[in-house]
Amino acid sequence: MENLNYSILLYYCYAEIKDPEAYREEHHLFCVENNIRGRIIVSPEGLNGTVSGLKEDCEKYMEYVKSDSRFASTDFKVDEFDRHAFTKIHVRVKPEIVHSSLRHINPVTRTGKHLEPEEFKKLKDQEDVVILDVRSNYEHELGRFKNAITLDIDNFRDFPEKVKELEHLKNKKVLTYCTGGIKCEKASAYLLEQGFEDVYQLHGGIIKYGKEAGGQDFEGKCYVFDNRVAVDVNQVNPKVISTCHVCGTTSDRMVNCANPECNIHVPICEECGWEMEGACSEECKSHPEKRPYDGTGYYQKNTNGYNPYKGLFRKPDKEKIKSLVND
């Protein structure tokens, strides 16, 4: 039996942060000192993070976040795991906590009605209801709710343009969903702004729905932004809906193309993964910059010059820091 001594936390919180740079430094220092790894965005509109650590360290981290009155209502989605889901810690300041073209929208002021997982489950099959997936193509191609409407978008910032295709649904109850709930906050608010009157969102997203409602009618796997790449959701009536990008056989094994200039996220079966050396095509397989394939199809993101030491107010043990950020 696996020793699931680690936790993976997925969370966000919309709240005003007047000095994001100062808070980034404080937050980063806490992560370094408590062996928390992952990716965290700090912005003037709030926090967004996916992190991993030993269970006791993650408990400290959740207490730390919630001890700040601005983030006291943060809803953490917690998964058990047998190791760190990240190799480093990155805490960055960005204009938004999820990249969109909807910076004018403040979900704290107005957003779709939050549905808890069991409420979503009861409502989703009613005749006057449509289920709307607000995620990108590579996410919903791997897994989505049965009968969900999906949008042909490569990035969430393309969402507003696609809403024009949904005009005929303005008289319906629109139930939006995404991985952890964060995209729905602005997506549902934008739908309201565009004249949709009855708009809802799945609180906590697919991840929370799997944990609290058994994942019923979510078909396929859920794409996640850590080195697990994809996770099971449905414990009631699971079904694989994705096919191998190379050979077309049924597969829910998600891979990033080994060619860093391509790097598309597609399902590739294990046999094709090894045969193609992690590449999505013969062209990518022969690319001179192709990364070594280890069977997972997950590659640590380029740090783009990010310095894990930058901005620390005080210096913890240097050897400890090196072990935390370079393992």
Automatic annotation (TrEMBL):
<dbReference type="Pfam" id="PF12368">
    <property type="entry name" value="Rhodanese_C"/>
</dbReference>
<dbReference type="InterPro" id="IPR020936">
    <property type="entry name" value="TrhO"/>
</dbReference>
<comment type="similarity">
    <text>Belongs to the TrhO family.</text>
</comment>
<dbReference type="Pfam" id="PF17773">
    <property type="entry name" value="UPF0176_N"/>
</dbReference>
<protein>
    <recommendedName>
        <fullName>tRNA uridine(34) hydroxylase</fullName>
        <ecNumber>1.14.-.-</ecNumber>
    </recommendedName>
</protein>
<keyword id="KW-0560">Oxidoreductase</keyword>
<keyword id="KW-0819">tRNA processing</keyword>
<comment type="function">
    <text>Catalyzes oxygen-dependent 5-hydroxyuridine (ho5U) modification at position 34 in tRNAs.</text>
</comment>
<feature type="domain" description="Rhodanese">
    <location>
        <begin position="125"/>
        <end position="218"/>
    </location>
</feature>
<dbReference type="InterPro" id="IPR001763">
    <property type="entry name" value="Rhodanese-like_dom"/>
</dbReference>
<dbReference type="InterPro" id="IPR040503">
    <property type="entry name" value="TRHO_N"/>
</dbReference>
<dbReference type="InterPro" id="IPR036873">
    <property type="entry name" value="Rhodanese-like_dom_sf"/>
</dbReference>
<dbReference type="InterPro" id="IPR022111">
    <property type="entry name" value="Rhodanese_C"/>
</dbReference>
<dbReference type="Pfam" id="PF00581">
    <property type="entry name" value="Rhodanese"/>
</dbReference>
